[in-house]
Each structure stands twice: as C-alpha cells, then as structure tokens.
Design goal:
The chain is mainly α and 190 residues long. The protein has eight helices and four strands, in the order αααααββααββα. Helix content is 42%, strand content 9%.
Length: 190
C-alpha cells in the first residue's frame, strides 16, 4: 500500500477526519504527510491540532513517521510502498536504523554494478588492478554489457603463459558461448 493510503487508513482507524470540521476546512492528510507549511496551516493551528490528535508524536518529524513506528512499518521512498521492517536492510547511520529503500529496490538499483563489483574483487584478489586503472570506465563497460554477453578479459587474469590486468583496455564484450570457448586463452574469438 502507498504512504498516502496508509495514512488515510490510520486516520480513519484513529477517528480523525480527513478535513477539519471547522469552517476553514483544512486538509488533515496534507498536514500529516507534508507538514503545516505545505498544507497551508498556520503554525499555531497545526500545533494545536497535532497536540490534540497525536500527543505522542516525534518532535521535529513528520507525523506519519510516528504512525509507521507504532505499526512496525517503514516507507520505501523509491517504490512508495509501506512495508514491514523485514523488507528493509539495516543502516545504523539513520535514526530508525533502516535503509530508505526496500531490499527489492536496492537490488534493482545496484544490479548494473554487481558484475563490476565482483570482477573488481576477483582482480584485486589476484593483484591485477594497477593504480592507474580507470575504475569508472571499467564500471561503465560492465553496466553497458548487452544481454547474453559477458565482459571478457582479452588477456586473461590467470593465463597459461601471460597474465593480463584488470584495466579498461583489456576488456571486451563477448557472447557467452564465445567467452566460454576462449576460456583462459589469449586467442581473440569475435
């Protein structure tokens, strides 16, 4: 469920109207989601309303954060879903101790860089990354690799006669079949 749907549900559960019953008809949903300035409330009016309906709210935080905390849920700012804590990785630098993106969104965000990260780790383990290697260009080669292709080292990192380096000039895109045929040889199969 989206954050807005969650807040509407919580307001209805608590018996709080979505619009104030006064003659001014102030929008409560906007106040809870965005704060009094963006919702068009005065500071004094908003404070009076919030103290009445949300006495245990977190000072200097959006009201919906208290609602989420009370229900053991968290909001993913990427996919706009309210999910339970188990769908988020921990992040000790944040106040609530959770990432702002759910695990699924984080996986999608980091997917293009996963292959480059693995290759960098393997090359570092083999001590094949010189100090002058352009790691941004290497990551770009991995992120632009077409589907069904592998990123191949032209001169393999663990060749029989010679060992190559993990640098942008030693990388190429090869079909999966051609890369498996080439294996650890230097032969250039295109």
């Amino acid at each position: 469920m989206s954050l807005e749907d969650f807040v509407i549900q919580q307001l209805k559960t608590r018996g709080i109207p979505l619009v104030t019953p006064s003659r001014y008809k102030k929008d409560v949903l906007s106040l809870v989601l965005y704060g009094y300035r963006r919702a068009g409330w005065s500071a004094a009016g908003a404070l009076k309303f919030l103290n009445k309906h949300f006495p245990n709210r977190i000072p200097n935080a959006a009201v919906y954060t208290g609602m989420l905390r009370d229900t053991n849920k968290h909001w993913c700012s990427n996919c706009d879903k309210v999910l339970s804590y188990k769908h988020f990785s921990s992040n000790t630098s944040r106040i609530n101790g959770l990432q702002s993106y759910c695990k699924q969104c984080m996986a999608l965000k980091e997917a293009p860089f996963a292959a480059a990260k693995t290759a960098k780790y393997r090359a570092a383990k083999l001590q094949a990354i010189p100090k002058w290697a352009n790691l941004k260009k290497i990551a770009q080669i991995y992120s632009t690799c077409p589907a069904g292709y592998h990123v191949d080292h032209i001169v393999p990192l663990q060749g029989v006669l010679v060992c190559g380096l993990h640098v942008e000039y030693n990388l190429q895109h090869l079909t999966a079949e051609a890369n498996q045929k080439k294996s650890n040889s230097v032969a250039d199969i295109v």
